[in-house]
Specification:
The complex is a heterodimer of chains A (166) and B (420).
Chain A (H helix, E strand, L loop, with lengths): L6 E5 L6 H4 L9 H6 L9 H4 L5 E4 L11 H8 L4 E4 L4 H9 L4 E3 L10 E5 L4 E4 L2 E4 L5 H8 L3 H13 L3
Parallel strand pairs in A: 1-2, 2-3, 3-4
Antiparallel strand pairs in A: 1-5, 5-6, 6-7
Chain B lengths: L2 H10 L9 E5 L2 E5 L4 H11 L9 E5 L8 H17 L2 E4 L4 H7 L8 E4 L13 E4 L2 H10 L1 E5 L3 E7 L8 H12 L8 E5 L1 H4 L3 H9 L8 E4 L3 H9 L20 E6 L6 E3 L7 E3 L10 E5 L6 H11 L9 E5 L3 H9 L2 H7 L3 E2 L20 E4 L15 E4 L2 H10 L13
Parallel strand pairs in B: 2-3, 2-5, 3-4, 5-6, 8-9, 8-11, 9-10, 14-15, 14-17, 15-16, 17-18
Antiparallel strand pairs in B: 1-7, 12-13
Classes of the chains: A alpha/beta (166), B alpha/beta (420).
């Protein structure tokens, strides 16, 4: 079994929407300030205490609402290793991939809040003290975008190749 | 093929497509606004070292920060204007909410494949256009390349038999569907609306259906074009093209087919937190309200204003109730001013707000304060969306919102229908 690492689980329920991920009242403010207020209305400690390697676990329809990609960007900026939910809103899913935030469909609801966890993006495995949860693998072409760091670096590579005539 | 499959196949340059298949589609038009548009895509385009793939296929509309009274917002609007000038794209500055301005200016036609930088972009589906919302990074990719990947969706057919009763409208249908199917009920697939009640609707009402497909979790909300569609597009200065071709073929496979009876639908209200918290208006009839908001792309088009005014006309507002009206576009406001509709609101003491997204999206000067309870003609009521986290948003049709303004609590508009 792979090591758990230092990640912790942040567990949320169903229908976590983009208005709590990226509140409208901070949308005109600098991005850092918006990210510091990610989830502030339902989990005041989250943005303050989340650490690199942590994993967010949620129920159905995560990221429902607006197309504002700051919702996914704020999670990435706070250092999350990935988001796991039983289902995602379509636009949020696309945004997460395009920003290079690993995102998995799966049921990890046996894991308690603040439990130690480790996420392996390529194998789509989430380890915890009680075992390993197998998540749905990210399709190959989307995994490539995530590994490139998101759509922008992915396109940079494509344009560079085109310019070089490859 | 279904209507969705036909449009995607055309955009992908393929003879046919199957649900579940991932294809690369050529985009016919990209719509962006001041929030997710220039300020977010320009740094990416710069980084990619490329310009727009086709400036003739980009429409920019400022609507989010219009009327938002602070320096940062003014700077965003200024940046938006400069970008429009520099890039030579079609630009509508402070003309109203993008989802309504785009078809009002004749930009949508049946069979087009269109992306919008906003989650309510399924609105375009009302015109038989495959239109869906994407985030800013993905939009930058479209602006640079003119293409986007799409997983061909299944089609979920929602059929409304019979005719809607008086003062029951598209908003009630969608709140009902949200309650029935849930906010993920449409599984990011393509919804198609059909049936006698849809055929009898004008385009602005159909746009409310398609728009709120976002609240059902669908990627787009299509309605096959008919003579109503063609006439609207022609009057808007656009071209409906060979619109008869854009329909779901008989015998095409749909994943789900739901049938509802329009004649039995009651006005619906959604309690705070989610549009899926909907129930017939009587369920919530004792809730007092502080603010009545007639606004947004699904609740303040000309027909919505006319609906609210039909109830309000000759009535007084309940003591302590404030009514805010933000007509969806300048054109809608002009029409409402021309036939006396706007005067009904003015006489009721309404505050008229800019033609913008405004507090529906949490912007502007009229945001809800602490513990304020608002009944709103908008599409979403998530916690804190329209202001303070303690404020409450109850979603309803323009008829129901107007009736509630008269009594000061949530009220069935059918008790005022005689007045209309």
């Amino acid at each position: 079994m792979e090591s758990l690492g230092n990640g912790r689980a942040w567990v949320f329920g169903d229908d976590i929407d983009t208005d709590v991920l990226a509140p409208g009242r901070f949308m005109h403010r600098p991005f850092d300030e918006l990210a510091q207020n990610c989830l502030i209305d339902i989990s005041p400690d989250f943005a303050k205490n989340v650490a690199p390697g942590d994993v967010l676990i949620a129920g159905r329809n995560f990221g429902v609402g607006s197309s504002r990609e700051q919702a996914a960007q704020a999670l990435k900026a706070r250092g999350l290793a990935g988001v796991i939910a039983t289902s995602f809103a379509g636009i949020f899913y696309r945004n997460a991939i395009n920003l290079g935030l690993p995102i998995f469909v799966g049921d990890a609801n046996e894991i308690k809040n603040n439990a130690k966890v480790g996420l392996d993006v390529d194998t789509a495995c989430l380890s915890h003290e009680g075992g390993t949860v197998r998540l749905e693998k990210i399709p190959e072409y989307l995994l490539k975008i995530i590994h490139d760091g998101g759509l922008v670096p992915h396109l940079e590579e494509r344009f560079a190749n085109e310019r070089a005539g490859r | 093929m279904t209507l969705a499959e036909k449009i995607i196949a055309k955009a992908a340059g393929l003879p046919s497509v199957q649900p579940g298949e991932v294809v690369t589609a050529q985009v016919d038009l990209a719509m962006i606004h001041d929030s997710g548009g220039p300020r977010r895509v320009e740094p990416i385009l710069k980084r990619l070292g490329t310009g727009l793939w086709d400036k003739e296929r980009v429409v920019l509309i400022s609507d989010h920060y219009v009327g938002d009274p602070n320096e940062e917002s003014h700077a965003i609007l200024e940046l938006t204007r400069q970008w429009a000038l520099k890039n030579g794209v079609k630009f509508y500055d402070a003309q109203g909410i993008c989802h309504v301005v785009l078809p009002q200016k004749g930009h949508l036609s049946p069979g087009m494949f269109v992306v919008g930088g906003d989650s309510h972009s399924p609105t375009g589906g009302a015109f038989g256009t495959y239109m869906f919302g994407i985030g800013a990074t993905e939009m930058a990719g479209v602006l640079a390349t003119g293409e986007i990947w799409i997983k061909v969706p299944e089609t979920i057919l929602i059929e409304w038999k019979g005719m809607l009763p008086p003062v029951v409208c598209a908003k009630d249908m969608m709140l009902f569907l949200c309650g029935k199917m849930g906010m993920d009920g449409a599984r990011y697939q393509a919804v198609q609306y059909a049936g006698a009640a849809i055929g009898a609707m004008d385009m602005p009402e159909r746009m409310t259906l398609s728009n709120m497909t976002a609240e059902l979790g669908g990627q787009t909300g299509l309605i096959a074009p008919d003579s109503t569609t063609a006439e609207y597009i022609t009057n808007a200065g656009g071209s409906p093209g060979r619109w008869q071709e854009w329909a779901t073929a008989s015998g095409a496979v749909v994943a789900e087919h739901h049938v509802f009876d329009a004649t039995e639908l009651a006005p619906q209200v959604a309690a705070p937190g989610s549009p899926a918290n909907s129930a017939p208006v009587d369920t919530y009839k004792n809730q007092q309200v502080d603010v009545v908001y007639i606004g947004a792309c699904t609740g303040a088009k000309y027909v919505d204003l006319k609906a609210a005014a039909a109830i309000l006309k000759g009535q007084k507002l309940a003591a302590g109730v404030q009514i805010l009206v933000a007509p969806a576009t300048k054109e809608d406001q002009r029409k409402a001013a021309g036939d006396g509709t706007l005067k009904v609101f003015e006489e009721a003491g309404a505050k008229i707000l800019p033609n913008a997204c405004g507090i529906c999206a949490g912007y502007g000067s009229a945001r809800l304060g602490k513990d304020i309870r608002c009944i709103s003609t908008t599409a979403r009521n998530f916690k804190g969306r329209m202001g303070d986290a303690s404020s409450e948003v109850w979603l309803a049709s323009p008829y129901t919102a107007a009736a509630s303004a008269i009594t000061g609590y949530i009220t069935d508009p059918r008790s005022y229908a005689g007045a209309s």
